[in-house]
Amino acid sequence: MSMNRETARKLAEALVSRMTVEERASQLRFDAPAIERLGIPEYNWWNEALHGLARGGNATVFPQAIALAAMFDDAFLEKIAEAISTEARAKYNALSAEGDRDIYHGLTVWSPNINILRDPRWGRGHETYGEDPYLTSRMGKAFVRGLQGDGETLKTAACAKHFAVHSGPEALRHRFDAVASQKDMEETYLPAFRALVTEANVESVMGAYNRTNGEPCCANRFLMEKLRGEWGFQGHFVSDCWAVRDFHEGHMVTSSAAESAAMALKAGCDLNCGCVYQEAAEAWKQGLISEEDITRSCVRLFTTRYLLGIMDGVSSEYDSIPYEVLECGEHLALSREAAQRSCVLLKNNGLLPLDPDTCGTIGIIGPNADSRTALIGNYHGTASRYVTVQEGIQDFVGGRCRVLCSHGCALSEDRIEHLAKPNDRIAEAVAVARRSDTVVLVLGLDETLEGEEGDTGNSYFSGDKNDLLLPASQRILLDSVLRVGKPTAIVLMAGSSIDLREGSERADAVLLSWYPGAQGGRAVADLLFGKVSPSGKLPVTFYRNEALDDMPPFTDYSMANRTYRYYAGTPLYPFGYGLTYGRCEALSLRADRCRAAVTVRNSGTRATEDVLQIYLQDADSPLAPPNPVLCGFERVFLEPGQTKELTLELDQNAFTVVGEDGRRVPGSGHWKVFAGFGAPDARTEELTGNACITAAIQT
Predict the structure, then answer these.
(1) Cα–Cα distance between 114 and 163 in angstroms, integer?
(2) Environment class of residue 36 by beta-carbon count within 10 Å: exposed (0-12), middle (13-18) or buried (19+)?
(3) Catalytic pick among 240, 446, 464, 651
(4) pTM exceeds cut of 0.85
(5) Is 240 a catalytic residue?
(6) What is the pLDDT of residues 312-331, one digit of tens each?
(7) Which fold has domain 576-698?
(8) Which residue of 100, 140, 406, 671 lies most exposed, with the fewest beta carbons within 10 A?
(9) Chain-centroid distance, C-alpha 263
(10) Superfamily covering domain 331-540
């Protein structure tokens, strides 16, 4: 049966009409119980797939979302999402056949996270696609297309979260009001959600914990009108987990669970992750909501279940996907390639790539060198095998050179052994460095130091960063090792902006690997030894730590002096920046309102992929962002000396400006377009030696 939305909705209406009000209310919980008399099995709506199936057993663990954004390759991200949805179907098919319909085993996956990483302190920033609304929109749409498929039924149901103005502070999220101007809403916080709803047909949207401009996001009249009115959203809306409870316990806008359930349901929140909708039937009995309020949401939810082809009497073309696709060779290769494409080479004075036959003894030092936790980020699955950076290097050199290892220090504490004195592994690290010809120093964070504020639904108690510095233990290690004076490459494993100035100035090379997935160690070795050229680009600005003093407070959602579009200072590493082992440059540019044609060349001596980027700036309008804005990008492979001409479609939103009332209007008509392999700013030119080429467009 071809299962379009109209057909699914009619089937849902017919089924729901046979339920009692109490039965309908029971289906609005994330852990919807079975209704045996109607042949409806239980269904748990809660599943996660941020960068692979999460929390539900073995699955392919891809690089963290921020790393996937650094690929600047939406077509490849769609392939990754297709692999994730294939594994989701395989697991659902096998486990439901065994009678297992538990949490994290369903086909409604609460990904992607398309919030904007507006402030570098936000602990959940590595779950996002970075700081730019256009990049986030492109990557988010690709991820949704890959998850949902293009078959007669949905392969899985994707979820755009967290709607809509949500990016910390984590510690305040259950009671915080994120106040955003209408201009910032339209320029920054809403574009990606609009794109996923109107262009990718995302099946669900999740509301955030916080309030936005005074109203809780899961019952926000302005946001709901945007979503279902202006954008025509037809899917279902789900609360973040226990967010509706915050109505009466944190935001204090209601006085009981029944009132909170009524407020959310009447506003259009169909599904409750949490326990408050256990009071939905009671709210109906008290007259706080109507039968129609419950019925409307119940129909929306069963429409999704029919669209997935998982209801009695319907089937899906995905029912036959076998369990054996989980962690298959093709998916593991995708994960490794994603890590290769996502790592960002921040500095290289010629040390990289290393040659295992000539680099001599390699010293691998640092708390993340042999860390599995640093591979996987948060919202991760379980891999059957992990390859750490240390293991990846050891495997790659295969005995061609001696490898010495030292943990060096704890990730953030002042000692590794609690009975030892502080800095108990520094002497060992120095001894290893002295006996090495080349040092690989692996530093950074993991999900225990930047992540989500812990609550009853999450495994880890972590949160935002206080500053942009490495922990003190690692700064001591960094200085101690660099003082030895050996050629040193730093591998930085982190999910957001880190001020690694000392390493940037004193080390020979810096490779940012993010949280590169279970195959990450192999990919890092591939890059360090030149099997593949680095080609990732920063989807966020890397600031100097003191830049925080010039930004609005963390609780201020103004975009003033935040992200590359508005930042007035000099970044440590700019948005869009990343080196390769080649030397790609833009030679000529022709552009109009719709597209840009750019001739590019690799004038270096090594083949490489690189990312051509197009930026646009309104030359005259005072409403335009102060800095040029990304409006197109394309990944390209170039052999040494090779020249290609690329034609890129341009984002049409970039040819508008936004007034203080939040309305998009035509700009001045005088536009300056920039093309290059980085952003058109002085710091990128300083770091790369290349400037963008420019052209003018009149509209």
Answers:
(1) 9
(2) exposed
(3) 240
(4) yes
(5) yes
(6) 999 999 999 999 999 999 99
(7) Immunoglobulin-like (2.60.40)
(8) 100
(9) 31
(10) Glycoside hydrolase family 3 C-terminal domain (3.40.50.1700)
